[in-house]
Design goal:
Elements lengths: L1 H16 L12 H13 L2 H4 L13 E4 L2 E4 L16 H10 L14 H4 L4 H11 L24 H8 L13 H13 L3 H4 L17 E3 L2 E3 L15 H10 L9 H9 L6 H13 L17 H13 L1 H4 L17 H4 L4 H9 L1 E2 L11 E2 L8 H13 L10 H10 L8
Antiparallel strand pairs: 1-2, 3-4, 5-6
Helix pairs in contact: 2-6, 4-6, 8-12, 10-12, 13-17, 17-18
The chain binds heme C (HEC) (3 copies).
One heme C binds next to helix 14, helix 15, helix 16, strand 5 and strand 6.
């Protein structure tokens, strides 16, 4: 009986890890490992813990933070360079408290401020899944952090100021679906890592949860209920479709969000996606910022922007800014277009972009780059135009701002 079980388990290991023949330890059963694999997908571990062209989960990807680059460690079960010698307790301490195996403090580039909400049972399942992977020998390169940030004990202060440990507590009076959604959004999904604005030290602005953030010259829009800059005009079904396919009639996921969809949300069950959408739609959300007065259509900057738009953009996004559903995202009414921070806009016009290819929508439509054709000043007029045409309203973008963001674009807009 025991033998049959472990045989079944190693066949399963093969199927799960694509070639692992490692025998399974006690307490690792089919159900736990499959659940762990699903949860690891919901937590998007693979996208950070895989170097470009490297073996999945073997680490070595550089995570850009405003303070310098931090390389992800190997989380395959290799004994020397991975998690092979880690106990469940070691693993839970890293994920829930940001404490490494030797007691060292981990940088919040590992999103433990969110993973702290994940239950121990779920974390142990993730560890059981990771244990079935092929062990890969791979040491992460040293981090590029300046003094004193390279001293890990400095994180003690950070944790005291910005970190609230503790598993998710279901909210009484809310449905199971709502609580499941809250658990996923606030915990494993770590949506706030990008969508919550950060203070100067990289901590969450606690009063602006999911109100929109900027990372690596991308704008992660407000996920609150605001009609202009948030999800106010999105239905639950719009959100589900976006997370499942990378696009919907209103928008398309580019850059970091394309990665989230590609590695994580497209593989989640419809029930979990609907739970997240239900929770997001129900959140009171950040207080709606006062809508700015739109720049007048007669303004010379708007006139210049209109001409540039007609020449370069209207073929795809059409003159009315309504785009073509699921092919060319609408710019009219778009939260990305009207976000306070224009990072994404500068980036996609300068570099072009490609939407995520998902199982449900296998060819990701692309947008060409315009840096060879448009000056920073022209991009500024163009962006001011799309932010204030068709009923949109947002602060104008200056040539100086475009120049600054353009200058910071070092990487290409990689989309999986
Ligand atoms: C946003 C990027 C990101 C995501 C997503 C992410 N990690 Fe990490 N992880 C990191 C970084 C960066 C470190 C290194 C932190 C440090 O050096 O202090 C790390 C460290 C770790 C460590 C400590 C390993 C060690 O050797 O000290 C573990 C364990 C870990 N991650 C597991 C996971 C799991 C499991 C998931 C998915 C549920 C996950 N990570 C998702 C970025 C990420
Ligand atoms: C790694 C950073 C990152 C993480 C993590 C992340 N997002 Fe995003 N998200 C973005 C960015 C950047 C955009 C804007 C994409 C674009 O411009 O096409 C975005 C866009 C979105 C949009 C579309 C908004 C709009 O108005 O077009 C939704 C909805 C969304 N994210 C939901 C989520 C949810 C739910 C989670 C957690 C499960 C999540 N995101 C996690 C970075 C992230
Ligand atoms: C050949 C067709 C094409 C042309 C021309 C084009 N775009 Fe796009 N655009 C797209 C596609 C496809 C996407 C979605 C890609 C993605 O999500 O990564 C997109 C995305 C965008 C987005 C991001 C929307 C979102 O929800 O994330 C903005 C903003 C944008 N385009 C503005 C412009 C502007 C301004 C111009 C003119 C300079 C332009 N586009 C020209 C096809 C085009």
């Amino acid at each position: 009986m025991k033998r049959a079980l472990s045989l079944a388990a190693s066949v399963l290991g093969l199927a799960l890890a694509g070639g692992s023949t490692a025998a399974l330890a006690d307490g690792q059963d089919y159900v736990t490992i499959t659940r762990g694999q699903y949860l690891a997908t919901a937590g998007d571990c693979v996208s950070c813990h895989t170097a470009p062209g490297g073996k999945p989960f073997a680490g070595g990807r550089g995570i850009m933070t405003p303070f310098g680059v931090i390389y992800t460690p190997n989380i395959t079960p290799d004994r020397e360079t991975g998690l092979g010698a880690w106990s469940n307790d070691d693993f839970v301490a890293a994920m829930q408290h940001g404490v490494g195996k030797d007691g060292e403090l981990l940088y919040p580039a590992l999103p433990y401020p969110y993973y702290t909400k994940v239950t121990r049972t779920d974390l142990v399942a993730i560890k059981a899944y990771l244990d079935t992977l092929d062990p890969v020998r791979n040491e992460a390169p040293p981090n590029g952090l300046p003094f004193p940030l390279n001293i890990r004990t400095a994180l003690m202060g950070w944790n005291m100021l910005f970190f609230t440990p503790g598993e998710f507590q279901p909210v009484a009076g809310k449905s199971d679906e709502w609580n499941r959604g809250a658990y996923l959004v606030e915990g494993l999904g770590h949506c706030g890592a990008c969508h919550t604005p950060k203070n100067a030290l990289g901590g969450d602005k606690g009063d602006k949860v999911l109100a929109g953030g900027v990372l690596d010259e991308w704008t992660a829009p407000n996920l609150g209920g605001d009609l202009r800059t948030g999800l106010g005009a999105w239905s639950t079904e719009d959100i589900v479709q976006y997370l499942k396919t990378g696009r919907n009639a209103k928008s398309a996921a580019s850059g970091p969000m394309a990665e989230v969809v590609y590695y994580s949300t497209q593989h989640m069950t419809d029930a979990d996606l609907k739970a997240m959408a239900t929770y997001l739609k129900d959140r009171a959300g950040a207080p709606a910022p006062v809508a700015p007065q739109p720049v007048a259509a007669t303004d010379p900057v708007m006139q210049a922007g209109l001409a540039i738009y007609q020449d370069n953009c209207s073929a795809c996004h059409v003159s009315s800014g309504e785009g073509i559903a699921r092919l060319f995202p609408a710019l009219k009414g778009s939260a990305v277009v009207q976000a306070d921070e224009p990072e994404t806009l500068v980036r996609v016009v300068v570099q072009g972009t490609r939407a995520a290819a998902t199982r449900a929508a296998p060819t990701g439509p692309g947008m060409p780059a315009f840096d060879w054709k448009l000056s920073d000043a022209q991009v500024a007029s163009l962006l001011t135009y799309i932010r204030n045409a068709w009923g949109n309203a947002a602060a104008p973008v200056s040539a100086d701002t475009v120049k600054k963001i353009h200058g910071r674009l070092t990487d290409t807009a990689a989309t999986p």
